[in-house]
Write a structure and sequence with these properties.
With 492 residues, this protein is mainly alpha-helical. The protein has 21 helices and two strands. Helix 4 packs across helix 8, helix 14 crosses helix 15 and helix 18 packs across helix 19.
Protein backbone atom coordinates (compact mmCIF):
# COMPACT_ATOMS: atom_id res chain seq x y z
CA UNK A 1 0.00 0.00 0.00
CA UNK A 2 1.53 3.34 -1.08
CA UNK A 3 1.59 6.52 1.05
CA UNK A 4 -1.48 8.04 -0.63
CA UNK A 5 -3.54 4.88 -0.05
CA UNK A 6 -2.40 4.68 3.58
CA UNK A 7 -3.42 8.31 4.12
CA UNK A 8 -6.88 7.74 2.66
CA UNK A 9 -7.34 4.51 4.61
CA UNK A 10 -6.35 6.09 7.93
CA UNK A 11 -8.59 9.10 7.31
CA UNK A 12 -11.51 6.77 6.63
CA UNK A 13 -10.87 4.75 9.79
CA UNK A 14 -10.53 7.91 11.93
CA UNK A 15 -13.75 9.26 10.45
CA UNK A 16 -15.63 6.03 11.19
CA UNK A 17 -14.27 5.83 14.72
CA UNK A 18 -15.40 9.35 15.68
CA UNK A 19 -18.70 9.11 13.80
CA UNK A 20 -19.38 5.82 15.60
CA UNK A 21 -19.01 7.60 18.94
CA UNK A 22 -21.29 10.37 17.70
CA UNK A 23 -23.92 7.75 16.84
CA UNK A 24 -23.73 6.38 20.38
CA UNK A 25 -24.19 9.89 21.79
CA UNK A 26 -27.16 10.49 19.49
CA UNK A 27 -28.67 7.14 20.54
CA UNK A 28 -28.45 8.35 24.13
CA UNK A 29 -30.31 11.55 23.25
CA UNK A 30 -33.15 9.46 21.82
CA UNK A 31 -33.64 7.82 25.22
CA UNK A 32 -34.23 11.12 27.05
CA UNK A 33 -37.93 11.49 26.03
CA UNK A 34 -38.76 8.05 27.51
CA UNK A 35 -39.92 9.42 30.90
CA UNK A 36 -42.57 11.35 29.00
CA UNK A 37 -43.70 8.08 27.41
CA UNK A 38 -43.79 5.80 30.46
CA UNK A 39 -43.85 7.95 33.61
CA UNK A 40 -45.24 11.46 33.21
CA UNK A 41 -47.57 10.28 30.44
CA UNK A 42 -48.50 6.80 29.23
CA UNK A 43 -47.68 6.45 25.54
CA UNK A 44 -46.05 3.04 24.97
CA UNK A 45 -46.22 3.38 21.18
CA UNK A 46 -43.99 6.47 21.21
CA UNK A 47 -41.79 4.84 23.85
CA UNK A 48 -41.16 1.82 21.62
CA UNK A 49 -40.52 4.13 18.67
CA UNK A 50 -37.83 6.09 20.55
CA UNK A 51 -36.30 2.86 21.90
CA UNK A 52 -36.22 1.21 18.48
CA UNK A 53 -34.70 4.25 16.80
CA UNK A 54 -32.12 4.56 19.57
CA UNK A 55 -31.18 0.89 19.24
CA UNK A 56 -30.74 1.16 15.47
CA UNK A 57 -28.53 4.26 15.77
CA UNK A 58 -26.49 2.61 18.56
CA UNK A 59 -25.91 -0.54 16.49
CA UNK A 60 -24.67 1.49 13.50
CA UNK A 61 -22.40 3.37 15.89
CA UNK A 62 -20.95 0.15 17.26
CA UNK A 63 -20.26 -1.15 13.74
CA UNK A 64 -18.59 2.12 12.70
CA UNK A 65 -16.62 2.25 15.94
CA UNK A 66 -15.39 -1.30 15.44
CA UNK A 67 -14.26 -0.55 11.89
CA UNK A 68 -12.31 2.51 13.07
CA UNK A 69 -10.62 0.72 15.96
CA UNK A 70 -6.90 1.46 16.19
CA UNK A 71 -7.03 4.54 13.98
CA UNK A 72 -4.70 7.50 14.40
CA UNK A 73 -5.63 10.06 17.09
CA UNK A 74 -4.23 12.94 15.01
CA UNK A 75 -6.88 14.64 12.88
CA UNK A 76 -6.24 16.17 9.51
CA UNK A 77 -8.28 19.36 8.94
CA UNK A 78 -10.41 17.74 6.28
CA UNK A 79 -11.29 14.88 8.64
CA UNK A 80 -12.61 17.36 11.21
CA UNK A 81 -14.63 19.14 8.51
CA UNK A 82 -16.13 15.86 7.31
CA UNK A 83 -16.99 14.78 10.87
CA UNK A 84 -18.71 18.06 11.75
CA UNK A 85 -20.61 18.19 8.46
CA UNK A 86 -21.70 14.56 8.85
CA UNK A 87 -22.76 15.14 12.46
CA UNK A 88 -25.13 17.96 11.54
CA UNK A 89 -26.58 16.18 8.50
CA UNK A 90 -27.12 13.04 10.61
CA UNK A 91 -28.77 15.08 13.37
CA UNK A 92 -31.29 16.50 10.93
CA UNK A 93 -32.23 13.11 9.48
CA UNK A 94 -32.31 11.14 12.74
CA UNK A 95 -34.15 13.94 14.53
CA UNK A 96 -36.90 13.78 11.92
CA UNK A 97 -37.61 10.07 12.47
CA UNK A 98 -39.74 10.40 15.65
CA UNK A 99 -41.98 13.00 13.97
CA UNK A 100 -42.34 10.97 10.79
CA UNK A 101 -42.62 7.46 12.21
CA UNK A 102 -45.24 8.54 14.76
CA UNK A 103 -47.23 10.23 11.96
CA UNK A 104 -47.26 13.46 13.96
CA UNK A 105 -45.72 14.98 10.82
CA UNK A 106 -46.76 12.60 8.00
CA UNK A 107 -44.46 13.96 5.27
CA UNK A 108 -40.72 13.36 5.65
CA UNK A 109 -39.69 16.69 4.09
CA UNK A 110 -41.79 18.49 6.71
CA UNK A 111 -40.35 16.34 9.50
CA UNK A 112 -36.83 17.03 8.19
CA UNK A 113 -37.53 20.78 8.15
CA UNK A 114 -38.78 20.69 11.77
CA UNK A 115 -35.76 18.65 12.85
CA UNK A 116 -33.15 20.79 11.09
CA UNK A 117 -34.86 23.91 12.42
CA UNK A 118 -34.66 22.43 15.91
CA UNK A 119 -31.02 21.36 15.91
CA UNK A 120 -29.81 24.54 14.19
CA UNK A 121 -31.85 26.51 16.78
CA UNK A 122 -33.65 28.38 14.01
CA UNK A 123 -37.12 27.85 15.45
CA UNK A 124 -39.02 28.08 12.15
CA UNK A 125 -41.87 25.58 12.10
CA UNK A 126 -44.28 23.93 9.68
CA UNK A 127 -46.71 22.91 12.44
CA UNK A 128 -50.15 24.52 12.44
CA UNK A 129 -51.22 22.95 15.74
CA UNK A 130 -48.24 22.60 18.04
CA UNK A 131 -50.39 21.79 21.06
CA UNK A 132 -51.63 18.60 19.37
CA UNK A 133 -48.16 17.02 19.67
CA UNK A 134 -47.82 14.33 22.38
CA UNK A 135 -45.77 15.41 25.43
CA UNK A 136 -42.85 13.15 24.45
CA UNK A 137 -42.59 14.85 21.05
CA UNK A 138 -42.97 18.26 22.67
CA UNK A 139 -40.01 17.39 24.88
CA UNK A 140 -38.01 16.00 21.93
CA UNK A 141 -38.75 19.13 19.91
CA UNK A 142 -37.37 21.34 22.70
CA UNK A 143 -34.45 18.98 23.31
CA UNK A 144 -33.30 19.31 19.70
CA UNK A 145 -32.86 23.02 20.39
CA UNK A 146 -30.90 22.43 23.55
CA UNK A 147 -28.58 19.87 21.95
CA UNK A 148 -27.88 22.16 19.00
CA UNK A 149 -27.46 25.32 21.07
CA UNK A 150 -23.78 24.97 21.94
CA UNK A 151 -23.30 22.21 19.39
CA UNK A 152 -23.36 18.45 19.53
CA UNK A 153 -19.66 18.23 18.64
CA UNK A 154 -18.72 20.56 21.52
CA UNK A 155 -20.73 18.28 23.84
CA UNK A 156 -19.07 15.27 22.24
CA UNK A 157 -15.59 16.63 23.00
CA UNK A 158 -16.55 17.10 26.66
CA UNK A 159 -18.11 13.64 27.00
CA UNK A 160 -15.35 11.65 25.29
CA UNK A 161 -11.99 12.81 26.72
CA UNK A 162 -9.71 10.41 24.81
CA UNK A 163 -9.71 12.16 21.45
CA UNK A 164 -6.12 13.35 21.57
CA UNK A 165 -5.15 16.46 19.65
CA UNK A 166 -8.14 15.95 17.36
CA UNK A 167 -10.49 17.42 19.99
CA UNK A 168 -9.09 20.90 19.40
CA UNK A 169 -9.63 20.59 15.66
CA UNK A 170 -13.22 19.42 16.16
CA UNK A 171 -13.98 22.13 18.70
CA UNK A 172 -12.72 24.94 16.52
CA UNK A 173 -14.39 23.58 13.39
CA UNK A 174 -17.85 23.67 14.97
CA UNK A 175 -17.51 26.71 17.28
CA UNK A 176 -18.82 29.83 15.58
CA UNK A 177 -17.92 33.48 15.83
CA UNK A 178 -14.57 35.26 15.51
CA UNK A 179 -13.93 35.38 19.27
CA UNK A 180 -15.27 32.02 20.33
CA UNK A 181 -11.85 30.65 21.19
CA UNK A 182 -10.59 28.85 24.25
CA UNK A 183 -11.34 30.09 27.74
CA UNK A 184 -9.12 27.49 29.42
CA UNK A 185 -5.83 25.95 28.28
CA UNK A 186 -7.44 22.56 27.52
CA UNK A 187 -10.18 22.15 24.93
CA UNK A 188 -11.90 19.41 26.93
CA UNK A 189 -12.08 21.67 29.98
CA UNK A 190 -13.32 24.53 27.81
CA UNK A 191 -16.16 22.48 26.34
CA UNK A 192 -17.13 21.14 29.75
CA UNK A 193 -17.16 24.61 31.28
CA UNK A 194 -19.39 25.82 28.46
CA UNK A 195 -21.84 22.97 28.97
CA UNK A 196 -21.85 23.34 32.77
CA UNK A 197 -22.71 27.03 32.40
CA UNK A 198 -25.30 26.21 29.74
CA UNK A 199 -26.95 23.51 31.88
CA UNK A 200 -26.94 25.68 35.03
CA UNK A 201 -28.62 28.63 33.29
CA UNK A 202 -31.17 26.29 31.68
CA UNK A 203 -32.05 24.68 35.03
CA UNK A 204 -32.29 28.08 36.71
CA UNK A 205 -34.64 29.44 34.05
CA UNK A 206 -36.82 26.30 34.11
CA UNK A 207 -37.17 26.65 37.88
CA UNK A 208 -38.10 30.34 37.67
CA UNK A 209 -40.64 29.72 34.89
CA UNK A 210 -42.21 26.91 36.90
CA UNK A 211 -42.44 29.18 39.96
CA UNK A 212 -44.00 31.86 37.72
CA UNK A 213 -46.86 29.53 36.80
CA UNK A 214 -45.74 27.38 33.86
CA UNK A 215 -46.42 23.64 33.87
CA UNK A 216 -43.22 21.56 34.22
CA UNK A 217 -43.12 20.49 30.58
CA UNK A 218 -43.75 24.06 29.38
CA UNK A 219 -41.02 25.38 31.69
CA UNK A 220 -38.46 22.80 30.52
CA UNK A 221 -39.16 23.27 26.79
CA UNK A 222 -39.13 27.07 27.01
CA UNK A 223 -35.89 27.06 28.98
CA UNK A 224 -34.37 24.70 26.38
CA UNK A 225 -35.50 27.09 23.63
CA UNK A 226 -34.38 30.25 25.41
CA UNK A 227 -30.85 29.19 26.31
CA UNK A 228 -30.33 27.65 22.87
CA UNK A 229 -31.65 30.84 21.22
CA UNK A 230 -34.14 28.57 19.47
CA UNK A 231 -37.76 29.63 19.78
CA UNK A 232 -39.83 26.43 19.76
CA UNK A 233 -42.79 26.82 22.12
CA UNK A 234 -45.38 24.37 23.41
CA UNK A 235 -48.14 26.84 22.52
CA UNK A 236 -49.57 27.82 19.15
CA UNK A 237 -49.34 31.50 20.09
CA UNK A 238 -45.84 31.17 21.56
CA UNK A 239 -45.18 33.02 24.84
CA UNK A 240 -48.17 35.30 24.24
CA UNK A 241 -50.52 32.43 25.17
CA UNK A 242 -49.35 32.50 28.80
CA UNK A 243 -50.61 36.08 29.34
CA UNK A 244 -48.02 36.60 32.07
CA UNK A 245 -45.76 39.70 32.33
CA UNK A 246 -43.61 37.83 34.89
CA UNK A 247 -42.94 34.96 32.47
CA UNK A 248 -42.10 37.42 29.72
CA UNK A 249 -39.57 39.31 31.88
CA UNK A 250 -37.90 36.06 32.99
CA UNK A 251 -37.51 34.99 29.36
CA UNK A 252 -36.22 38.45 28.38
CA UNK A 253 -33.42 38.20 30.97
CA UNK A 254 -32.39 34.70 29.89
CA UNK A 255 -32.54 35.58 26.19
CA UNK A 256 -29.96 38.22 27.00
CA UNK A 257 -27.86 35.67 28.90
CA UNK A 258 -27.99 33.31 25.92
CA UNK A 259 -26.88 36.07 23.52
CA UNK A 260 -23.77 36.93 25.58
CA UNK A 261 -20.38 35.33 24.90
CA UNK A 262 -20.22 32.30 27.22
CA UNK A 263 -16.52 32.92 27.75
CA UNK A 264 -17.47 35.98 29.82
CA UNK A 265 -19.28 33.75 32.33
CA UNK A 266 -16.03 31.87 32.85
CA UNK A 267 -14.33 35.19 33.62
CA UNK A 268 -17.10 36.04 36.13
CA UNK A 269 -16.65 32.72 37.90
CA UNK A 270 -12.92 33.46 38.13
CA UNK A 271 -13.70 36.85 39.68
CA UNK A 272 -12.50 38.85 36.70
CA UNK A 273 -15.59 41.04 36.54
CA UNK A 274 -13.58 44.12 35.51
CA UNK A 275 -12.50 42.31 32.34
CA UNK A 276 -16.15 41.55 31.63
CA UNK A 277 -17.22 45.17 32.10
CA UNK A 278 -14.42 46.32 29.78
CA UNK A 279 -15.35 43.88 27.01
CA UNK A 280 -15.90 46.09 23.94
CA UNK A 281 -18.34 43.75 22.21
CA UNK A 282 -20.51 43.42 25.34
CA UNK A 283 -20.65 47.19 25.79
CA UNK A 284 -21.57 47.64 22.14
CA UNK A 285 -24.26 44.95 22.43
CA UNK A 286 -25.81 46.53 25.53
CA UNK A 287 -25.73 49.97 23.89
CA UNK A 288 -27.58 48.65 20.83
CA UNK A 289 -30.23 46.99 23.03
CA UNK A 290 -30.78 50.12 25.14
CA UNK A 291 -31.11 52.43 22.13
CA UNK A 292 -33.38 50.13 20.13
CA UNK A 293 -35.61 49.26 23.10
CA UNK A 294 -35.92 52.90 24.21
CA UNK A 295 -36.89 54.20 20.76
CA UNK A 296 -39.33 51.33 20.14
CA UNK A 297 -40.90 51.68 23.60
CA UNK A 298 -41.58 55.39 23.05
CA UNK A 299 -43.03 54.66 19.61
CA UNK A 300 -45.42 52.00 20.97
CA UNK A 301 -46.37 54.16 23.95
CA UNK A 302 -47.25 57.16 21.79
CA UNK A 303 -48.83 55.39 18.82
CA UNK A 304 -50.82 52.58 20.46
CA UNK A 305 -53.16 52.20 23.42
CA UNK A 306 -50.39 50.48 25.45
CA UNK A 307 -49.46 52.06 28.78
CA UNK A 308 -45.75 52.73 29.31
CA UNK A 309 -44.95 49.49 31.14
CA UNK A 310 -46.84 47.41 28.55
CA UNK A 311 -45.02 49.21 25.74
CA UNK A 312 -41.66 48.69 27.48
CA UNK A 313 -42.28 44.98 28.01
CA UNK A 314 -43.61 44.36 24.50
CA UNK A 315 -40.86 46.29 22.70
CA UNK A 316 -38.10 44.79 24.84
CA UNK A 317 -39.40 41.24 24.42
CA UNK A 318 -39.72 41.41 20.63
CA UNK A 319 -36.36 43.13 20.11
CA UNK A 320 -34.53 40.85 22.58
CA UNK A 321 -36.16 37.81 20.99
CA UNK A 322 -34.98 38.77 17.51
CA UNK A 323 -31.51 40.11 18.34
CA UNK A 324 -30.79 36.98 20.39
CA UNK A 325 -32.20 34.98 17.42
CA UNK A 326 -34.54 33.15 19.81
CA UNK A 327 -37.72 33.92 17.89
CA UNK A 328 -40.35 33.81 20.65
CA UNK A 329 -43.35 36.11 20.21
CA UNK A 330 -45.43 37.86 22.84
CA UNK A 331 -46.96 40.24 20.31
CA UNK A 332 -47.42 40.57 16.54
CA UNK A 333 -44.66 43.01 15.61
CA UNK A 334 -46.02 43.28 12.05
CA UNK A 335 -48.79 45.46 13.55
CA UNK A 336 -46.23 47.93 14.94
CA UNK A 337 -45.33 51.20 13.24
CA UNK A 338 -42.73 50.99 10.50
CA UNK A 339 -39.97 52.43 12.70
CA UNK A 340 -40.02 49.62 15.32
CA UNK A 341 -40.49 47.08 12.52
CA UNK A 342 -37.31 48.31 10.84
CA UNK A 343 -35.40 48.05 14.10
CA UNK A 344 -36.58 44.45 14.42
CA UNK A 345 -35.40 43.89 10.84
CA UNK A 346 -31.94 45.21 11.78
CA UNK A 347 -31.87 42.96 14.85
CA UNK A 348 -32.74 40.02 12.61
CA UNK A 349 -29.59 40.76 10.63
CA UNK A 350 -27.19 41.53 13.51
CA UNK A 351 -27.78 38.71 16.00
CA UNK A 352 -26.00 38.22 19.33
CA UNK A 353 -22.40 38.15 20.49
CA UNK A 354 -19.69 35.86 19.17
CA UNK A 355 -19.23 32.82 21.39
CA UNK A 356 -22.93 32.76 22.35
CA UNK A 357 -25.73 30.45 21.25
CA UNK A 358 -27.20 33.28 19.15
CA UNK A 359 -26.91 33.42 15.37
CA UNK A 360 -26.85 36.31 12.90
CA UNK A 361 -23.84 38.29 11.72
CA UNK A 362 -22.70 38.61 15.35
CA UNK A 363 -22.17 41.87 17.23
CA UNK A 364 -18.38 41.57 16.94
CA UNK A 365 -18.53 41.71 13.15
CA UNK A 366 -21.01 44.59 13.16
CA UNK A 367 -18.86 46.51 15.66
CA UNK A 368 -15.75 45.82 13.61
CA UNK A 369 -17.53 47.05 10.48
CA UNK A 370 -18.21 50.40 12.19
CA UNK A 371 -14.57 50.57 13.29
CA UNK A 372 -13.46 49.98 9.67
CA UNK A 373 -15.81 52.72 8.41
CA UNK A 374 -14.57 55.18 11.04
CA UNK A 375 -10.95 54.31 10.21
CA UNK A 376 -11.50 54.84 6.48
CA UNK A 377 -13.15 58.22 7.12
CA UNK A 378 -10.13 59.21 9.20
CA UNK A 379 -7.74 58.10 6.46
CA UNK A 380 -9.73 60.22 3.99
CA UNK A 381 -8.32 63.46 5.45
CA UNK A 382 -5.05 62.01 6.84
CA UNK A 383 -3.95 59.55 4.13
CA UNK A 384 -0.38 59.31 5.44
CA UNK A 385 -1.53 58.19 8.88
CA UNK A 386 -0.64 54.60 9.81
CA UNK A 387 -3.36 53.13 12.05
CA UNK A 388 -4.06 49.79 13.65
CA UNK A 389 -7.58 48.64 14.36
CA UNK A 390 -8.37 47.65 17.92
CA UNK A 391 -11.48 46.29 19.60
CA UNK A 392 -11.00 47.28 23.21
CA UNK A 393 -7.40 46.31 23.92
CA UNK A 394 -7.33 43.59 21.26
CA UNK A 395 -5.34 44.32 18.12
CA UNK A 396 -7.20 43.26 14.96
CA UNK A 397 -4.89 41.49 12.54
CA UNK A 398 -5.37 41.34 8.78
CA UNK A 399 -6.30 37.65 8.78
CA UNK A 400 -9.31 38.40 11.02
CA UNK A 401 -10.32 41.35 8.81
CA UNK A 402 -10.15 39.09 5.75
CA UNK A 403 -12.21 36.47 7.60
CA UNK A 404 -14.91 39.01 8.48
CA UNK A 405 -14.96 40.40 4.94
CA UNK A 406 -15.23 36.87 3.55
CA UNK A 407 -18.09 36.09 5.91
CA UNK A 408 -20.02 39.21 4.83
CA UNK A 409 -19.52 38.32 1.17
CA UNK A 410 -20.68 34.72 1.61
CA UNK A 411 -23.63 35.80 3.79
CA UNK A 412 -24.88 38.35 1.26
CA UNK A 413 -24.35 35.97 -1.66
CA UNK A 414 -26.29 33.21 0.12
CA UNK A 415 -29.04 35.68 1.01
CA UNK A 416 -29.32 36.87 -2.58
CA UNK A 417 -29.32 33.38 -4.14
CA UNK A 418 -31.73 31.95 -1.56
CA UNK A 419 -34.14 34.86 -1.92
CA UNK A 420 -33.99 34.59 -5.70
CA UNK A 421 -34.81 30.88 -5.50
CA UNK A 422 -37.83 31.47 -3.22
CA UNK A 423 -39.03 34.34 -5.41
CA UNK A 424 -39.01 32.01 -8.41
CA UNK A 425 -41.12 29.59 -6.33
CA UNK A 426 -43.90 32.25 -6.38
CA UNK A 427 -43.24 33.85 -2.99
CA UNK A 428 -43.45 37.61 -2.55
CA UNK A 429 -40.26 39.65 -2.20
CA UNK A 430 -40.57 40.43 1.54
CA UNK A 431 -41.35 36.81 2.42
CA UNK A 432 -38.52 35.49 0.23
CA UNK A 433 -35.96 37.89 1.66
CA UNK A 434 -36.81 37.51 5.34
CA UNK A 435 -37.44 33.75 5.17
CA UNK A 436 -33.88 33.21 3.92
CA UNK A 437 -32.50 35.83 6.31
CA UNK A 438 -34.18 34.27 9.34
CA UNK A 439 -32.89 30.81 8.36
CA UNK A 440 -29.33 32.06 7.81
CA UNK A 441 -29.46 33.93 11.12
CA UNK A 442 -31.19 31.10 12.99
CA UNK A 443 -33.97 33.38 14.22
CA UNK A 444 -37.30 31.77 13.27
CA UNK A 445 -39.91 34.40 12.35
CA UNK A 446 -39.52 36.98 9.61
CA UNK A 447 -41.96 39.26 7.83
CA UNK A 448 -44.73 38.73 5.29
CA UNK A 449 -46.17 35.22 5.30
CA UNK A 450 -43.45 34.05 7.73
CA UNK A 451 -44.23 36.63 10.41
CA UNK A 452 -44.41 35.92 14.16
CA UNK A 453 -47.99 34.65 13.94
CA UNK A 454 -47.46 32.53 10.78
CA UNK A 455 -45.29 29.53 9.92
CA UNK A 456 -43.43 27.89 7.02
CA UNK A 457 -46.00 25.23 6.14
CA UNK A 458 -47.09 26.97 2.93
CA UNK A 459 -43.71 26.58 1.19
CA UNK A 460 -43.36 23.78 -1.36
CA UNK A 461 -40.87 20.94 -0.88
CA UNK A 462 -37.99 22.44 -2.93
CA UNK A 463 -38.31 25.67 -0.94
CA UNK A 464 -38.30 23.81 2.39
CA UNK A 465 -35.21 21.84 1.39
CA UNK A 466 -33.47 25.03 0.26
CA UNK A 467 -34.30 26.64 3.61
CA UNK A 468 -32.90 23.58 5.41
CA UNK A 469 -29.62 24.16 3.56
CA UNK A 470 -29.71 27.82 4.60
CA UNK A 471 -30.24 26.84 8.24
CA UNK A 472 -27.25 24.48 8.17
CA UNK A 473 -25.08 27.04 6.38
CA UNK A 474 -25.94 29.70 8.92
CA UNK A 475 -25.45 27.43 11.94
CA UNK A 476 -21.97 26.35 10.79
CA UNK A 477 -21.17 29.84 9.45
CA UNK A 478 -20.95 28.68 5.84
CA UNK A 479 -17.35 27.57 5.39
CA UNK A 480 -17.57 24.06 6.89
CA UNK A 481 -20.31 23.00 4.49
CA UNK A 482 -18.98 24.98 1.54
CA UNK A 483 -15.61 23.26 1.99
CA UNK A 484 -17.30 19.99 1.03
CA UNK A 485 -17.61 21.32 -2.53
CA UNK A 486 -13.94 22.26 -2.85
CA UNK A 487 -12.03 19.70 -4.89
CA UNK A 488 -8.89 19.97 -2.73
CA UNK A 489 -10.79 18.62 0.26
CA UNK A 490 -11.06 15.25 -1.43
CA UNK A 491 -7.43 15.05 -2.53
CA UNK A 492 -4.83 13.39 -0.23
Amino acid sequence: MNLKSMYAYDTKKTFCKIVGLLHLLLATFLLLPLPWCFYFEWDPYLGKLFLGTSLFIALTGIVLRRYGKGSNEIFFPRTAILIVAYAWLALGIVGALPYWESNAIPRFVDALFESVSGFTTTGSSILNNIEALPPALQFWRGLTHWIGGLGVVVLFVSVFPNLGVGSKMLFKTESVGPTSGEVTPRIRDTSRNLWYTYAFLTALEATLLWLAGMAPLDAIVHSFSTMASGGFSTKNGSVADFHSPMIEWIIIVFMFFAAVNFGLYYLLVKGRWKAVLKDAELRFFITVIIIFCSVSTISLWLRTDYDFLHALRSATFQLMSIISTTGFASDDYELYAYGPQFMIFLCLLMGGMAGSTAGGLKQFRVFLMFKIIANNIRLGFTPSLVTKLRVGTTLIHNDLLHSVLGFFCVYMTSLALGSLFLAYRDNDLLTSLTAVMTCLSGTGPGFGTVGPMENFAHFDDPSKLALCVMMLLGRLEFFVLLALFHNKLWKP
